[in-house]
Amino acid sequence: MEKVPMTAAGHEALIEEIKHLKTVERPRIIRAIQEARAHGDLSENAEYHAAKEQQGYTEARVAELEDKLSRAEVIDVSKLSGDSVKFGATVTLVDEDTDEESVYQIVGELEADVKAGRISITSPIARALIGKSVGDSVEVNTPGGGKSYEILAVSYS
After folding, report:
1. Residue 76: its pLDDT value, please?
2. Regions of the chain where pLDDT drops below 50
């Protein structure tokens, strides 16, 4: 059984999402199914079919999240240190072509959110950064072509 690495914050967010799905979404969907059933003929009842589809999606999501939670390897980033990039690191990069600075934290797949500055450990940029240190240049193959970055800072917090 493969472990799923995640930060403590990501683990907590997973627990909260499961709690929300079970305590808010499930009851709402059950009410929607009951209301649709009250309308009579289910074979041509679009609301019933939509609610059942939503129920299937919600139950699948709960099962997926519970599976990931059971295999979670929670890594406390605040206890990590060092100069090289590893899981949980917050890395400041500068694009060598445009001089544009970016800051990313390397996190587990489920908690990745590029807009919030969190990239997945499995992303091309994170894979290129792992093991590198401040001052190193890295080449990243992206869908838009190759990019060169220089690592300006590495921190764990």
Report:
1. 85
2. none
In degrees rounded to 5, what are phi and psi of residue 4?
-110, 105
Residue 114 makes CB contacts below 8 A (sequence gap 6+) with none
User: Burial of 85 by CB count in 10 Å (0-12 exposed, 13-18 middle, 19+ buried)?
Assistant: buried
Domains in the chain (CATH in brackets) are: 4-75 (1.10.287.180), 77-155 (3.10.50.30)
Phi, psi (deg, nearest 5) at residue 37: -60, -35
15: tokens are 């627990």
Nearest in space to 107 (alpha carbons), one of 12, 11, 9, 7: 7
Helix and strand totals (H; E) in the chain? 4, 7
The overall pTM is greater than 0.90: no
Phi, psi of 91 (to 5 degrees): -115, 130
Q: pLDDT at position 147, please? A: 87
Q: Residue 107 has which token pair? A: 């996190």
Decide: helix, strand or coil at residue 23.
Answer: helix
pLDDT value of residue 132: 93
**CA gap 86, 115 in Å, rounded:** 21
